Amino acid sequence: MIRKPLAVLVACSFFVGTLPAQAPQQATPFGYLDFSKEAKTEASFLAVPDAKLAGEELKILTAEPHIAASPEDHKTAEYVAEKFKAAGLETEIVPYRVRLNRPKDVRIEAYGPDGKLLVKGPAPEHVGSDPFENDPRVVMPFNGSSGSGDVTGEVVYANYGRLEDFDELAAQHVDLHGKIVITRYGANFRGVKVMIAQQRGAAGVLIYSDPQDDGYFKGDVYPNGPWRPESAVQRGSVQFLSMYPGDSETPGVASTLDLPDSARKSPEGNEPKIPSIPISYHDAAPILQALKGASVPQGWQGALPFRYHVGQNGGQGVKVHMVAIQDYQRRIIWDVIGKVKGSELPDDLVVAGNHRDAWVYGAVDPNSGTAAMLEAVHGVGELLKQGWKPKRTMIFCSWDAEEEGLIGSTEWVEEHDKMLEHAVAYFNTDVAVSGPSFSAAAVPSLKQFIREVTKAVPSPAGGTVYEVWKNSRTGENEHRPSNAPSDGDVRVGDLGSGSDFTPFFQHVGVPSTDVGSGGPYGVYHSVFDNYAWFTMNADPHFVYLQEMARVFGLEAIRMANVDVLPYDYPAYAREIQSYVDGAKRKAADEKLSGVDLAPVQAAAQRFADAAKRARAAQSAPGGDVAKLNKGLREAEAAFISPAGLPRRPWFKHTIYAPGEFTGYAAVVIPGVNEAIEAKDGALAEAQAKVLIEALDKATAALNGAE
Fold it and tell me: Does pTM top 0.90 for this prediction?
């Protein structure tokens, strides 16, 4: 997963054995006219996903390091394809040729003000008792999309590398031109850290994992616990994800094998020019300890056992020589696509996906998701053997090169954008299991759908997934806007970016969800995210893999067979209204003259009124159900702006986008809010008109559905 997961401290109570086969008693899910037959189908499905089989699949998938475009990656594609075919899916391996870098020479040397050598590395990832750490096929830690270079500069510490952190350095008159910035992981996407550092004139960037965030400050480190040991390095892409994901040479165009070179463009808008290297806190500590200059603001202090300092300007500080020579080539990646044709509505698509590639072994990220998906497909296959057919076409997807920038999913979406106008949902899982705490994010119209699905799935902790989820309150989303409405139910988060729902939702407007089950997880993107860590810390008996297979598969089955699309537009309208109200207050606080959001509020109210009428029609469809469903689907598509967002037109959703300077967290009504933050009144007014047009188009779609 590109997204850095939030580590949640939980009490892990693992269930020994398999979960109950039967579904709990449930009310008729919204959207079904008669659920009696479907209830039997769902019960049959829930009985199939098997914890032991999921564990065996995970072991096979993580037996070798399988970075994207490697021979081992291709082996996992063939394995997944075989599983899809065995379940009865029409299966193909779909290749794309995309620009990827591999490290040719990555090293650092740090010297104190007296010229004394402080660090020569990177030090190898090593704990001594891990059975996977010494495989010669493990690629050294590096950053995907890093600039290539050999640079030397004085070091400046920039905390998390957020925009406000760089602004604080500027306020302290710290000049970053020619400097090496050292920043810790967390708070925003690593590519944003590098993007801002480059904009401020830095020569290079070092990114390390501070023990405050996922190391010993949290608890015992691996192999004695789940947290990051001192030598572990978080690899990752530093692509400018908030500009556009996918192949950096072909934004908006599928990078198929036969795409001519003339159709490709310079990747400058998507790749950093300066080099960056990820390092461990073992290597970062001597550098940080030797820094002088101003003491950091208290919020910048990490957990290493000394006071942090910004660094001393004027050529008298710590200097780092960093070498990051990259081998950029167009390499082949492989998506695996499996289909079950719909019996009644074959052109209507339900798409479900998980990525398969990993920086190293990827037991949690992403192959817990792959194993869960395979067991979901196993369940669908058993239904097919019993003669069952979905009403809508189901497509299961194993994406490649997600870690390098959501590449496999983005290229497939760009190739099939017209076909996806008929997709009624995209269901994503990535880090499916790092512990027992279920969480989800979704477009507002599918948040209640997620809750209803979890009410039908048994939990290893007893009761249903929904009951455990609600009692644990781990569904809270720290990035949720403070002005978002609360209905008292378990929170379902908003979709920002960082995983494969991004092209579906924010580029072509397919309603999407993302589900996972979390816990203490400190080995993200390191060599230690492997089968040994997983069976010790995440899910020893694989019952949460089984749980996630059931949730993920039931999402797809239910959406494929529902009579009336179960989109909850009144909930969507409430959230939009709260976002507009918040933007209006922000514009007033910024004293932006000429920005009048009252017309947007009026448009949001028109949409809310239409949503209530549509909900009534969904609850008691007395007319043309096909017409009703068409209007419901077109309402989400209406939020896609053909022109896209200012400065980043690949992102087209007018309600949600990843923040330009966060990369992960969702920015709501982004065109308007980002213009207000930039204090650009004219742009805010222009984007308000775009938003009104989208809202009115969605309102017309709902009115036409009645």
Answer: yes
